[in-house]
Amino acid sequence: AGSVLTTTTCPSSPSTVAMAPYQPWHASIATTAGAKDIHVAIATGVFSNARSINDAGVAVGEFDTGLRTAATSAYRLGVPITHAVIWDTVSGKATDVGTTGMLSTLRAVNTSGVFIGTNVGPATSGGSATFTKGGPVVGTVANPTLVDVNALLDTASRGAGWSVFAVTALNDAGQILAQAYDGAQVSNIVV
Predict the structure, then answer these.
(1) What was the pLDDT predicted at 10?
(2) CA distances from 98 to 11, 16, 103, 163, 165 (A)
């Protein structure tokens, strides 16, 4: 299906980076004919990132919705509000799976079409981004709904106070490598 690339158009000097608006870059895949821009299926915002692709040509990542939060000292143009996206690189179609009022990204997709990512917020256009809700998510390409990974923890883990705060990897067996906290320690776990 191809390898994930991100083509970038960047300013030439670091001082330009600090002062320039968000620069355009597009998620792309490598094909035998060269780089194929898959951002065009979205037709919004100035940038996108493809983070993973499976053998069926399904790529996942995030795209810029074109909306920004209010400016801050760290983000003078506001935080870009991104949404998680699934690209079918064979058909050329893209599916926005982000949640309105949240920032989201998908990090990995396996051969069965299971994906993992993050959905945090709230983040509103012209408003603030507080990141008090949401967290790591899982879903499937066939039913692209973002589900809280903590809902997958067994009763004993939830009862012991474990809470997943990050997902880092996914294998073809559907196991998710995650980082969790129980109020006293951080540990890597398999969900």
Answers:
(1) 38
(2) 29, 31, 7, 22, 18
From 186, 170, 72, 188, select the one nearest 178 (Cα to Cα). Answer: 188
Kindly report the number of other CB atoms within 10 A of residue 153's CB atom.
Answer: 19
Between CA 9 and CA 155 the distance in angstroms is 48
Q: Which amino acid is at 71?
A: A
And the tokens for 35? Answer: 């780089």
Question: What is the CB neighbour count within 10 angstroms for residue 35?
Answer: 15
Element housing 61 (H / E): strand 58-68
Per the CB < 8 A criterion, the answer to whether 85 and 111 are in contact is no
DSSP state of 33: T
Rounded CA separation 42/83 (Å) = 11
Do 67 and 46 meet the contact criterion of CB atoms below 8 Å apart?
Answer: no
Q: Could you report how far apart the first and last alpha carbons of the chain are, in Å?
A: 28
**C-beta separation of 91 from 153 below 8 A:** no
Dihedral angle of Cα 24, 35, 88, 53, to the nearest 10 degrees: -90
Residues 6+ apart with CB under 8 A from 174: 110, 112, 114
Give the pLDDT of residue 2. 56
DSSP calls for 124-138: -TTS-EEEEEEEEEE
Whether 12 has a pLDDT exceeding 80, the answer reads no
Taken as a whole, the chain contains a residue count of 191
For the record, the structure tokens of 151 come out as: 């809902």
